């Protein structure tokens, strides 16, 4: 299906009398699905072209179409809701419209003379059935003709337009001709539909006000062609922010294009200028680069971009060069720009230089791609060539002007950097993308020629990107935060730091290329590797704790905000809150943290009890056992509990704010110190006097340190007493996850303990304390022990004997015996530690027995803490405490969970997959349409793109998806055969554990993802999710088979074989079968035996696999 396309029908047939025939020459082609395309086209065009302002017209048309078979109001709502300019797929999911088409198709079949479906036969029948004229537009022949009903005496016949095209394609590898009908809608109606689509698309966009002022009047006038971007650019006020926001996500620009609005910057207006010409008039130099990136990637019409170029992308660079040159020539070298002419020429020349850089890099990459790679050595050589190409082209285009050819002063260097900063920013960003796209592929095949070589350059690229992010004027959010802390974000001290990091980067690039080329001849055995060494994965940022802390804080802030801003819509909010709890608990984990880590400051915000709960909650969510998943599923429907937890997260975020401020200052202080080192080194190497700059940066660094010390001092003074955050809701959530009794249940059960039991326990505790201090006690006190009488008698005898021996030892009567005993002990092969503490002395052994003896209260504690208890302990508990029936049930349930029963991994997995499907597919008509019809790799790639776009637009969707997918990976971890599932296999960080990234965060992955390629990790997650959707049928069938065997235990029947067919459709079925419930073992064994060994009996009547009709 294609998006709506405008046609001027007069171009196809200049002699056709549109006015006399009653047809409009300006129409939009609306695409329908291939199957029953004539039926869908007739139904939708006939009903959608209704004038709803005329009473009874829709009802009359519906009755003419299908009689009284469908509720009129339902049909009217469905037709009004259909807007192909907003969502072309939605109508095909409407049950009402499906029913109308089905009924009309059956009515048509009754009118046919033959069963064969032919347009030439059906169209005249339809014309007569509905009493309508049908204009047929043949796009192949460029001809128009009208089909009229047999009885055309009426002058007021309704009219519809069908658009026919035929194109060659392949079905099952055989060339064939595909005939297709779509329908047309008049331009006036389409203007109204486009207006509605525009209002929805821009509902929350900053462009909305400008679009309301400029675009909507054009639609009201019925203008045929609207160049959306040029129309906005021509207006002077706030044009930068409006157009920039339009292209922040090319999803919005693409949707506007689908709705018939021109958003391609390459398109020319009536004066012959492109959008680049109007963007160059803006004072915002970055605007023209925003448009350029969109155009350079062919407006994302295909999956290929300049990062993975093909011939189409490469030829597009030549087209862009021509368009830019034409704009320059047509405007007489921008002379008409007046005072801005010179600045515009600089931006224009820089953009042409940038275009030439991408042209050369793309041509080089495409050429390298064609080289053979039959062996690991050839793969390594190709990847080395690609990296060297990128870096050497970067070095060649690194600077503009004469700064490399002659010594320059500090002022000239800064002036050049400021003048061409937009070019430098875009060049550096693009090279960083290309570098990180390829460096991990190189690390996975070529051993580093020198230890730390790869990680050093990676760190340099990342630091350069970070300084641009934090110290450029376009980062308004960071600037506002600095002003809130009392700093001038526009200070020159900030602007120099990205330049210094850039100079460092160039040194590293040249050194890297030189070392990589030193050993040009490679040996396959010595120089190649099969995967990325772990030290290469861990190497980057190992010396930059402050950067790691920055990513930790950003991650923490993001998920807490999402949890607080997500509306209570079904279970999605619950999943978001669970994700937030996981991230909060991880952020305060200091097991392997550096003593200087920001984690320690985060921990200062809470009392110990709260810290413990947050940590336990995170650990439990990250390491759920199979039997705990059903407990989690039950908790997730308790919306009241999660409302309480959400308010507790709000309190947590509030006390974290000071720590966030401290980290912000820490980061800038770190970058300033690095800048100082660079200035001093550059001053020595280049011989340029930078004394003034060094001094001023030092003073500025002192100011930052003072401010940080003030905030840290305030945090120390406040301490946990001032931030007494309690989290009873999170505590309750954790206890339920663990299967603990609730506080109320626990209090009720403990309230049933008789006072005499409590007194005896207290007496035993006092006895332990007295014995521990060496106080002589009355032997009758041992009667309080909860032991059998004979065991108490033995203890009494031991104690009496001990007292006698102690008395004898004190009078010296046993001194000789003691010496002999020591000699025997010396000769013994057993050491004191091997004998154990209970035998080191009589008193210690006696005390050990008493302390380890059971009593009803410590047994009760063990049950509530989910520790295992013996049958004898349970017997003693129930003998001493007469529990109520309700309390016994609660205790039995807790004990059963404590045994850690084997959970149903497949059922757990199925639960998570169903929720994933609901939030990612069912909620979006266009995504559901794509999923149900996706076949080709290209279509699947587009589906991934659509879901990833939503991942970025909706933080709540992102967090919910991560929660559910994390649970899926946790379940699959029970079978090592699924190892491929939790290992990342895309360009960046190939081979890392995705589950660990989700559980702990990864500053390297997240930093590059956030700064360089936000789509990288989300695309990986979405692909894994789609794989689970593909395998869902197999998992369901396995679960059903297991239940059927367990319940019936009969011989296999036809339903069993049908289930087995569904299982075998998945190539991973054996891996999933290993997740079947282990108990009862005979059931699982029977299922596996049936799947692997039992042949399917032959059907006596035979089976025709193609017996089902393709019709509906």
Describe this structure in words.
Helix 18 runs antiparallel to helix 19. 64% of the residues lie in helices and 4% in strands. The chain is globular, with a radius of gyration of 38 Å. The chain is built from 51 helices and six strands. The longest helix has 48 residues, at 639-686. The chain has a six-stranded mixed beta sheet. Mean pLDDT is 80; it is low at 475-480, 827-840, 987-991 and 1096-1112. Strand 3 (132-138) and strand 4 (143-147) form a beta hairpin. By secondary structure, the protein is mainly α. Residues 813-833 have a biased composition (Basic and acidic residues). Residues 813-842 are annotated as: Disordered.
Brief rundown of the structure:
The chain has 1112 residues and is mainly alpha-helical.
User: How many individual helices?
Assistant: 51
Please state the structural category.
Answer: mainly alpha
Biggest pleated sheet: 6 strands, mixed
Estimate the global geometry from the Cα principal axes: globular
As a percent range, the share of helical residues equals: 55-70%
